[in-house]
Specification:
Elements: H1 22-40, H2 43-80
Helix pairs in contact: 1-2
């Protein structure tokens, strides 16, 4: 019984729910520091929030899609062999 490979999907974002789309990640990342500043007016609290958001953006908007594309390319190469 052979397992048939699934066809590659055009984009990682087509696999994700609405709350994990680039627009929702960006909107939340803008909202969190703005809300922190608006509520607290403390730069020493808002600055770490901004840092965490930048790391979160880098992880989910840059590294994960790049790793997914690399995995898809590797699967395509394996299927051709």
């Amino acid at each position: 019984m052979a397992i048939e490979p699934t066809p590659p999907v055009g984009s990682i974002w087509s696999l994700k729910p609405w709350w994990c789309q680039p627009w929702s990640i960006l909107a939340t990342g803008v909202f969190m520091p703005a809300a922190s500043w608006w509520l607290l007016h403390r730069w020493w609290i808002t600055l770490p929030v901004v840092g965490a958001v930048l790391i979160w953006w880098w992880l989910f908007l840059v590294l994960v899609p790049a790793a997914w594309r690399a995995e898809q390319a590797g699967q395509s190469e394996a299927q051709r062999s």
